[in-house]
Amino acid sequence: MIHTAHFYILLNVDEVQQLQQRFAVHYTEIGKKVDCQFSAFTTWMVDKYGFRLHFIIDFIKLLGKADIKESDYLQVEKEIKNYLFYLFLDVTMFDRICMLRIDYRLDVKIPDPKHRELLLHLYKKTVEKFRFQKKYDQYDTTIYFNSQSVQGCCYDKEEDVKAEGRIPEIYEKDVFRFEVRLQNPHLNHMKSRKGREKWLEEYFKESLYRHYMSKYLGALLYEGDYYKINKARTRINQSSLTKKEKEQLIEFLKYVSRHGIESAKQKYTRYYFRKFLTQLKALKINPILIPKNRKDFPSFMKNPFCLY
């Protein structure tokens, strides 16, 4: 459900001096003293707009597991308080935490690297822009959908780790990751617009996780499983659609396969574009086909982006 989050605590001069005396280092070196005791934390301090202690938490490392649920929040809070007590000898510092970013994730095990390659190939054919998000697909193993305040991305986690020059952890091996990153401008917007405080507990809810993943990735990747044209045609022809509707829907799929979703949005009227997507959704067919000329790709693949 959750990957990482970035926080800060605003400190006064006395608190900074106490930290320096306690750990016998300059405030800029505090992370070297602290993070060796807390491997899930990355700590640093800056003197900008006042002294701020920043820390990023890797929740998989914090809890020692990848399957993180809303029910894990109390354990997470306990671990953060342990960290803060080590720093300040005062757990009430927890109430002064402000969140700057949170990353949600969906990890799917896909053992066949060709299938992970196929996903990236298919995602390059989706829309170039959606709401305020813009697609960036110039990378081999990652596709981004960015706005100024929210970033969605889909990537081959195992290949990403190998590119960093390290051996994948067991929870990274064979994994294709879907991620939505909420930046500080979005968190501020939600606080002013909906009164949602910038606290971890607010964003640690399963319902909110599903909302963000669906809104910022699901709407771009579409529902339905992936087919080559022959299998999709068979499924459509077996449906209860009229003959004309079947022909139109097959032509739509073929056009998307050749030119991509963005071009199809320009070619078809808004009414027909939405109609075809609705029909495909009902048939559980993704509008983006597996290319028939790629013999190394399967003729069918179940859609891995499933939140339920």
What do you see in this structure?
- The chain is an alpha+beta fold.
- Helix content is 43%, strand content 22%.
- The protein has helices at 13-23, 30-34, 59-63, 73-88, 113-123, 157-163, 184-194, 200-203, 206-221, 229-237, 243-259, 261-267, 270-283; strands spanning 2-11, 41-47, 51-58, 98-109, 129-130, 133-136, 142-146, 150-156, 175-182, 226-227, 300-301.
- The strands form two sheets. The protein has a nine-stranded antiparallel β-sheet with strand order 2-3-1-4-9-8-7-6-5.
- Helix 10 runs antiparallel to helix 11 (243-259) and helix 11 (243-259) crosses helix 12 (261-267).
- The termini are close together.
- The model has no long low-confidence stretch (mean pLDDT 94).
Strand order of the largest sheet: 2-3-1-4-9-8-7-6-5
What separation lies between the terminal Cα atoms? 12 Å
Helix content: 40-55%
Instruction: State the major sheet.
Output: 9 strands, antiparallel
Uncertain residue segments? none
Shape: elongated
Radius of gyration: 23 Å
Enumerate how many helices there are, as a single number.
13
- Calculate the mean pLDDT score and round it: 94
| Beta-strand residue fraction | 15-25%
Strand-pairing-aware structural class: alpha+beta
Number of strands: 11
> Could you state the order of secondary-structure elements as H and E?
EHHEEHHEHEEEEHEHHHEHHHHE
